[in-house]
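=== RUN LOG ===
request id: a7f3
mode: sequence -> structure
chains: 1
length: 539
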Amino acid sequence: MKQGLSLRVSQHLALTPQLQQSIRLLQLSTLEMAQEVEQMLDENPFLERGEEVADREDFGVQTADAPVVAGEQLEEAAQPVVELRSAEPDTRTTQADSADSASDEVESRLDGAAPVEESWEGDGTVEMAPDDSEWGGDAPARNSGSGGDDDDTATAADLARVPVSLQDQLHEQARCLRLSDEDSAALFFLIESLNDDGYLEDSLHELARACWRLTAGRPADEEPRFDEVEAIEQRLGMALQWLQQMEPTGVGARDLGECLRLQIMELRNTPAARTALAICEQPLELMAKRDIKRLCAATGHDDETVRAALALIARLEPKPGRRFVDVERNVVVPDVIVTRAGRGFKVSLNAEVMPRLRVHDVYANALRGRREAGGEAGHAAMQQRLQEARWFIKNIQQRFDTILRVSSAIVERQRNFFMHGELAMRPLVLREIADELGLHESTISRVTTAKYMATPFGTYELKYFFGSSLGTETGGNASSTAVRALLKQFIASEEPTKPLSDNQLSDLLKEQGIECARRTVAKYREALRIAPANLRKAL
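=== RESULT ===
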């Protein structure tokens, strides 16, 4: 063995913390972005929400146009040019009284601060940079819980928008019953055990054990005595009878069959209703498949009565608590809004989701004064936090700039969709947008994931506008999204007694000049959550 010394030259891609943060912010959804902003506001003292309207900065627009080299490698923006400007106490009357205390707080933070990381180093300046002002000035100021006399007051419109939950509705009815304290507690426990659909997911025995542990304050691993559980289970059984008599009808059921039976018993006593009760006693698979022959044999009724009973069951509500669900919890907040502007379309960011952030000028000026006074202890750590705040603001702005550019390119490519609907959708892949904007394909994928666009036809995820292509007889291409829309039209206009099979749908597409195999039709139909022909057949 002979020892030697050699020199090797190699190239590798290194992601700085700034670039890593930019990539991570780009793939966050609106909700996750809001949580990230709140976390950063809590951790970084140099970052604050802007309360006044400020002009939107230009940072990120020029650098966003730069082409991508070597995959995900993005050009890092240069350090901002810092302009010296003297502090003007008369323009900060709201913060003048607290400047001394803020300076003391910063000085206390400087003592014993952690060493600065090399990659977050700035240019050594602590003066207010031109881009330290708040960003997102187009967004209206939000009520962040600042003190005021009107914070706890609610208008009539606000009260009207407050949804009434299923539990509130049932508790209101329970107050009208004259029950003992024990029965009222049992009924209250059952109401609170309902899921959003109005069902009891656990059996009475399991609920009785849970109620015993709750009232006795016992641990979950301790087993109760049989007589204690039996007494609670009997009381819960009586409370269940009262619960199942409340509105909406069918609430408190343990399964779908019981829910349907509770609703049928509220109807008139007709042959169809009696047959429907008998059908609900049978396995639900027979009803789902509409197996008339087996249902006739199981219930002992004729074909016509069974069909009438199935039609009656189809009009029932399988989820009694559905109308009480707070739909606002599931409302999608769009990141981009597309509106008509003359003969074209205007693409703009949703001001409601754009955070308005800025560097805390009091803390930044206090840090500058500390440096000018010659206090170097802990200065590097505080300079690092100030630089983090600046980069966070810039990365957020770059995120929204990229979303806006990608959305504008999508609107330009899918112009026919915004004019005529999904039938006019054209094939589009991520690479086309990436090549047009000079970005990497993975960047476009991050931008289009969990980002939504409000259009004249509804709110869609940005990925919705991308789809594969199918060949046509003329040699052109048809978008898979347009093909699915065409399938929905075919199925919506079919005869209820003679639904179209997948083979027939494939033939209809061929008549339109679109080559689509039966398997592809079945895949698109399942993606649209449309039942096969045998289940769509009307009675």
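=== NOTES ===
Residues 379-413 form the longest helix (35 residues).
Strands lie at 47-49, 336-341, 344-349, 357-359, 452-455, 458-461, 469-471, 477-479.
=== END ===
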